[in-house]
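Dear support,

Our group has been running a series of protein-ligand predictions, and this particular one with adenosine monophosphate is the one our PI (initials K.S.) wants archived with full inputs and outputs. We had some confusion internally about which version of the output was final, so please treat the block below as the authoritative record. The input we submitted was:
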Amino acid sequence: MAIIGIDLGTTNSVVAALDGGQPWVIPDDDDELLLPSCVGLDNNGQLLVGAYALRQYASAPERTIKSIKRHMGTDFQAVLGDQTYSPQAISAMILRTLKAEAEKVLEEPITQAVITVPAYFTDAQRQATKEAGEIAGLEVLQILNEPTAAALVFENRSEEGETVLVYDLGGGTFDVSIVDITGDVTEVLASHGNNRLGGDDFDRQLQRHLTDKFQQVHGEALPDDPAIEARLLRAAEAAKIELSEHGFVTVREPFLVSQGSTALHLETEIARDDFEHLISPMLKETLAAIDRALSDASMAGDDLDRIVLVGGSTRIPLVQRLVQNHLPGVPLSSFEPDLCVAMGAAVQAGVLSGAEIESILVDVVPHSLGIAAMMDVGMGIPMPGMFSTIIPRNTVIPTSRSEIYTTSSNNQEKVEIDVYQGENAIAKENVPLGSFMVEGLPPKPAGAIQVEVSFDFDINGILTVTATEKGAGQQNSLVVSDADTGRLSSSELVQAKESLDQLFDLSEGSLMAALAAADEEE
Ligand code: AMP
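Confirmed final output from the archive:
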């Protein structure tokens, strides 16, 4: 049975499979390879996924959801019609659509998948992605980092080994990873990025530029209207894409605002230079991330054999130019920047299903993981609330590490374990992952009780924390269960799956009715 590879993107999603050892992207009924990661309800309350949903975004933004990936792992509630949905449930609608496309083309039921996420995704975001798969009826065999997936496609199997910098700038996220490929082993040496930076931000910059132009031309500000905003955002994205090919683009948005009996239009020309000026501060940030990844890997630009560009936004000429100027002399390659992540996921799916691909994947922890603890910061004075790292950033996964901590006061009855991820020496400045107590400690002087804190980071990038009191035969241990904000309980998962099934049945029913009506008309 085939296992599919899915790139669940902020802007677009892609499904791929392996055929004869080669990955290929599965097209939809209209032969499209990219499914816009957009979900909506039409006038009649029927579910729309992909291009159909995206098309109504401008006219019905209140019934349409875009970029849900940015909310994964949070308790954000998306409103669609009179219902609210978790980010997992919305993502599941996209996954379910991709699964159906794959089943149609491959002519077999699909129940298992490898899904990619940005290397910089937190534990909660990865867990939410797994849950989305589950709601969509897919067992997620592995959550794979996107740059790692891309490197799998580009793999050069020479025995000498290659060090590749994967620069991935998509719609909503940016990642840079340094990947070492030697023979069959792919190892991520370092990974860095920003999961809130991408083409969507460039669209918004350009949208603001268009709004300013309107005010300059007409002498008045555009009204605060979500439909107008959505229209301008769509125009901005189209202009941006055209500017990758041409030096100038003309944006025409007729009848943007009506003023009594007259209508106000927007017609303006944008030069590529203007656009480059708008986005270059954001791109500079990506160059700093390259330097940080190189320094984490203890490397210089000269140590790189290749740069691989991934993500739709790397089609922007300025991106290519800046990256190349930043790393002069390193060959730059790009292959289907929108598709290669899904293709790499399909390669990994093939590996998991025992297909004829010999590849071993080594991945790393994207952030340091640890707990808040009382620590000596160098002046002989122990300070509370310091960040004690248990698994350092860029440790190869899966990994298990533990540290021993002791009580700090006499007759201390309990110890609170606050788990964080990040690089700051002050625990609170990092991202909290959750906390729990080890209680019922026997009365002993300060420092006499030892608590072992173990961190297990699995192949999917999911963390389990256990704390055990090393006492006179007495052991307390707890697993962090509330580490993940927005995590769904198993009954919530079942419920989400049932309501998704119902939505899809309804929409298939209405599709059938529409098709039947069309047949009658013919
Ligand atoms: P991805 O997340 O990899 O699918 O990338 C999607 C992002 O790439 C969106 O922001 C698109 O607007 C952007 N994109 C796609 N094609 C181009 C292009 N030719 N020029 C500039 N941006 C593009």
